[in-house]
Write a structure and sequence with these properties.
With about 325 residues, the protein is mainly alpha-helical. It has seven helices and no strands. Helix 5 runs antiparallel to helix 7.
Length: about 325
């Protein structure tokens, strides 16, 4: 009897891919539901903030009041800054939702092309099992069992590798964010003690770059979480984009805003460090699982080699 049955091997791979896609689709649908609700919430917030700006710009009663007390420019700047912040948050989450929708469509289309593969695999496996029983050899039955287990471990090893790759990508991004936040904090400290326009510009430049990296990290964490969907550990990692919005000096008068910025940067650094630790812990568990899979595959290969050497045909 042929040990490597090409048809059975192909069906095993298709069945493993089908299971992976089903787990991925379930995870992506869950992410889509959360993001859809968040997009609706942020869209409403964005419209409210824009309405506040328009109300002041069109000389409402509120605008008249702020003109009387000499705070019109300050209030309008504050409302514009809040509208900008709401728009940034909405755009980031809307981008995430679009990415999830695209991945979901691709996964569903691929799964549709594999429809029935698991049933065909089971049928082929049962057919081979009947042939093994007809041959009457206990070694042949064990070979079939070990082959099925090895095929499962092979697919699991692939999924673990993909999850580790996604985790490493996100881990590197956290390092870049921490570097930019550290630079922003240093320039912010210099700005606080009189660094002038250059220090202020440098501070905001690093904060803007950190914000862009955070949006990238959020996407990478979502991808990492998706890759973890069909392995035995889970991770619930989210980055609050709001904590990384550009901190505008025009929110308040005087030096108080600079103290606020430094405090926000410190809080953001702590948040990114916490996310980095989560990624590191998940990666550690994944590497331990890879080691276990590799060890079991080596044992199976050794047992199969012994059986094949001792088998009488």
């Amino acid at each position: 009897m042929s040990y490597y049955d090409e048809q059975l091997r192909r069906l095993q791979e298709q069945a493993a891919r089908s299971r992976h896609l089903k787990a991925t689709i379930q995870e992506l649908r869950s992410q889509r539901d959360v993001l859809t609700a968040r997009v609706s919430e942020l869209e409403a917030l964005k419209l409210d903030e824009q309405a506040d700006v328009e109300q002041l710009e069109h000389r409402s009663l509120a605008a008249f009041f702020y003109n009387v007390i000499g705070k019109m420019d300050e209030r309008l700047d504050k409302e514009r800054a809040e509208a900008y912040a709401a728009s940034v948050k909405y755009d980031a989450v809307a981008k995430e939702l679009a990415a999830v929708d695209g991945q979901l469509r691709e996964a569903e289309a691929e799964l549709a092309g594999l429809e029935g593969c698991e049933a065909r695999y089971l049928a082929a496996l049962n057919q081979k099992a009947r042939a093994v029983k007809a041959a009457g050899g206990p070694d042949a039955a064990e070979i079939l069992r070990l082959q099925a287990r090895f095929a499962f471990l092979k697919s699991q090893r692939t999924e673990l590798g993909e999850a580790i790759s996604a985790g490493n990508t996100a881990f590197k991004t956290t390092d870049r964010i921490l570097s930019k936040l550290s630079s922003a904090h240093n320039w912010g400290t210099w700005d606080l003690i009189g660094g002038g326009p250059i220090a202020e510009m440098a501070k905001h430049d690093h904060l803007d770059k950190a914000q862009a990296e955070v949006e990238l990290l959020q996407s990478q964490l979502r991808e990492f979480k998706t890759e973890l969907a069909d392995v035995t550990i889970q991770a619930d990692m989210q980055v609050n984009v709001e904590g990384f919005l550009r901190f505008a000096d025009w929110f308040f008068d005087g030096l108080s805003i600079d103290f606020v910025i430094l405090d926000k940067i410190s809080q953001s650094q702590e948040q990114v460090q916490a996310v980095k630790a989560q990624i590191e812990q998940a990666l550690s568990s994944l590497h331990a699982m890879v080691k276990e899979v590799d060890q079991e595959q080596a044992c199976i290969n050794g047992r199969l080699e012994t059986l094949l050497q001792e088998a009488r045909l």
